[in-house]
Amino acid sequence: MVSTIHDVAKMADLSVGTVSRYLNGYNLKEENHQRIERAIRKLEFKENLMAKGLRSRRSHTIGVILWNLSDKFVTSIVTAVERRLESTRYNLILSTYEKSSEELDKKLRVLKDRFIDGLILFPQARATSILDEYREENIPIVLIDEEIRGLKADRVMVDNFDSAFKATEILIKLNHRKIAFVEGKKSFLVNREQREGYMAAMSRHALAVDSGLLVNGGFSTIKSYHVVKQLMGKKERPTALLVSSQPMTVGALMALYELNVGIPDELSLIGFGDYGLSMITRPFLTVIDKPTAAMGKKAAELLIRRINGDYSDFPRMVKFKSKLVVKDSIREI
Amino acid sequence: MVSTIHDVAKMADLSVGTVSRYLNGYNLKEENHQRIERAIRKLEFKENLMAKGLRSRRSHTIGVILWNLSDKFVTSIVTAVERRLESTRYNLILSTYEKSSEELDKKLRVLKDRFIDGLILFPQARATSILDEYREENIPIVLIDEEIRGLKADRVMVDNFDSAFKATEILIKLNHRKIAFVEGKKSFLVNREQREGYMAAMSRHALAVDSGLLVNGGFSTIKSYHVVKQLMGKKERPTALLVSSQPMTVGALMALYELNVGIPDELSLIGFGDYGLSMITRPFLTVIDKPTAAMGKKAAELLIRRINGDYSDFPRMVKFKSKLVVKDSIREI
DNA sequence: TTGTATGCGTTATCAA
DNA sequence: TTGATAACGCATACAA
Fold first, then answer.
1. Which residue's C-alpha is at the least distance from the C1' of C13?
2. Strand D contacts in B 257-286 (CB under 7 A)
3. Distance, in angstroms, between B280 CA and closest chain A CA?
4. Is the CB of B2 under 7 A from strand D?
5. Which chain D nucleotides are covered by protein, judged by CB under 7 A?
6. Is some CB atom of chain A closer than 8 A to the CB atom of B246?
């Protein structure tokens, strides 16, 4: 039989109030403290999270809303979040929205109705006024690698400017001049930052970015496949290519394989993406590896602090530098 | 202000009992039905899942315990599960255990304490008696592509025998005789079935499996990397290689790249894994693509039926055939 | 078919 | 510092 604080109280010969206080970390007389502890152990008492939640309006649950699980950037961050949460009493409720605004809204609503105590959001679609309700009800939100206009929230970011800058610059130093950049969706901050990094590196070295070099891969594998195919079909090919996300890098690879473009002989290639990708392509791919483990940990910690009411440095923006992992897909020309 | 069934009852001029019955699908007088519906809409009433759960001992939550999120087999099934659950009132609580038995036990315990209504489990480590408690408390479990000895539970499986058989046989038909098989951990059913499929195909064509052809990749990328390196370092190399999981296929690729083994010229290669992998390796990889979408959907539906008390065909074992996607990594010799 | 009343396990208020 | 007791929002047994 499952026991309640009433059973514990009876066995310890104290009142339920006292037991409840014990459970919530209030000070008791040392002796009573011990008595309760013993009773809890004997009865194998476990708190009932639903009853607790009903009273306290907390679910001890953290929502994670992400676009999908096929992106390693997302999954490694979620993994890190879960790991960080293991020592706490929080669990993760997972929701995906496939980059659809309607879906996103729906999921935001569902999770709010479940009384999540906090939210970790990977934003890749517009959300509507539902986010205001989160604010009104004081449900903290941590955004991953993006902003949402009009929403003051904590953010855990990749230093995307720096990443693109570094990648572009290394290509320039290898004497590349015609460096193309496959960007994502223009409306997103992550894309603007990357593009600015790319532009800044180009202009610092007095290189022109003619219009043909900047192509839009729309954050998707298939779109990237098409634009890269088009890009490399032109008479004036770039000698180097920087692709701004993992799924788009996959698309680019597919196109390049199909066109039989030699890497790095005909084209030097750098992709944003995880380290894993660099090991299974041939040649090994030079990638910009994002510090997902640190990001997930940070996001979890930030969120917990907010849940505990510590808004001292709100809104916080933490930026992590990525690492350029140089492999065989780039060369000097 | 958030409204309760009391508010709804008052506005509809009925009792809370009636409203509660309405919400749980009991029959009401048509007029009252309408009145309640109107009131609910006007008040934007939402059920309080915690209160509901406290009374009914249901959390409307389904636990998913998986080894980690870096395996596409896992993530695509989870995605399918979530999609199937969208039209229901269930949400997913996610937990990972990194193939450690202690972790698995811990997670099983945590989720039980959260009153999950059902569990989807990807078993790759031994679990202890905690699973008996699930049975005692009537929490249904669906196992994905594995069995747990001593546990009667529904299972959603890949037809691993058939998969390995088909893959081996196509290699045989391409005149390969020395076909090596990188297997996973022997203690798991998935591995035994694959191995039997491989053996069956070999013996049907009267081919001997000498001991050197069967190597153990331990289900991990790194282990597979090492054994394949060793395997291909021998004087007598196989002419074809079948690798029995996605992570191990990655490890095999790393080894083969490193040793500069020409694929498919020197070695024909088939890997278990997802379709995506086949597109980014060079040459394009022939893979055994598992029907993860269907599996996830089935798992969700099976679990919901059990939660609803329908145990008519318990325990059910559903087996899905995988698809051999032939690309450029195999050739006739 | 509906209303009333009790309890699910906890927290919080108020007295002691 | 502790005890008694009233909520929290809902489901259900029982009566009507």
1. A17
2. none
3. 6
4. yes
5. 1-5, 7-13
6. no
Interchain CB distance below 8 Å, A82 and B96: yes
Please give the Cα distance from A329 to B17 (Å, whole number): 69
What's A325's DSSP letter? Answer: E
A59–B contact, CB cutoff 8 A: yes
Token digits of residue B329? 């990594």
Q: Taking a C-beta distance cutoff of 8 angstroms, is the pair A188, A248 a contact? A: no
Q: Is A110 exposed, middle or buried (0-12, 13-18, 19+ CB in 10 A)?
A: middle
B70/A76 CB distance under 8 A = yes
Report the distance separating Cα B310 and Cα B314, nearest Å. 9
**Chain A residue with the nearest C-alpha to that of B45:** A113
CB of A68 lies under 7 Å from some atom of strand C: no
Query: Which of B67, B69, B229 to substitute to test the interface with A, most A CBs within 10 Å?
Result: B69
Which of A139, A122, A120 is CA-nearest to residue A245? A122
Task: Report whether A275 contacts A246 (CB < 8 A).
Answer: no
Q: Output the distance from B9 CA to D15 C1' rounded to whole Å.
A: 20
Within an 8 Å CB–CB cutoff, is residue A50 touching chain B?
yes
Chain A within 8 Å of B257 (Cβ-Cβ)? Answer: yes
Structure tokens at B229: 């390196």
Report which DSSP code applies to B180: E
**CA A331 to centroid of chain Cα atoms:** 31
**Integer Cα distance of B66 and B272 in angstroms:** 19
Do the beta carbons of residue B153 and residue B134 sit within 8 Å?
Answer: no
| Residue pLDDT, tens place only, B102-130 | 999 999 999 999 999 999 999 998 888 89
Helix H or strand E segment including B118: strand B118-121
Tell me the residue type at A258: E
Residuewise pLDDT in 10s, chain A (333 residues): 789 999 999 999 999 999 999 999 898 888 999 999 999 999 999 999 999 999 999 999 999 999 999 888 999 999 999 999 999 999 999 999 999 999 999 999 999 999 999 999 999 988 888 999 999 899 999 999 999 998 999 999 999 999 999 999 999 999 999 999 999 999 999 999 999 999 999 999 999 888 889 999 999 999 999 999 999 998 889 999 999 999 899 999 999 999 999 999 999 999 998 777 788 888 889 999 999 999 999 999 999 999 999 999 999 999 999 999 999 999 999
* Helix residue ranges per DSSP H, A44-113: 49-56, 72-85, 101-113
CA distance linking residue A247 with residue A272, whole number of Å = 9
Q: Which residues pair with B154 in a beta bridge?
A: B142
Q: Look up residue A233 and give its two tokens.
A: 């079909």
Say how far apart CA A303 and CA A141 lie, in whole Å.
Answer: 7
Q: How large is the angle between the packed helices B5-12 and B16-23, nearest 10 degrees?
A: 110
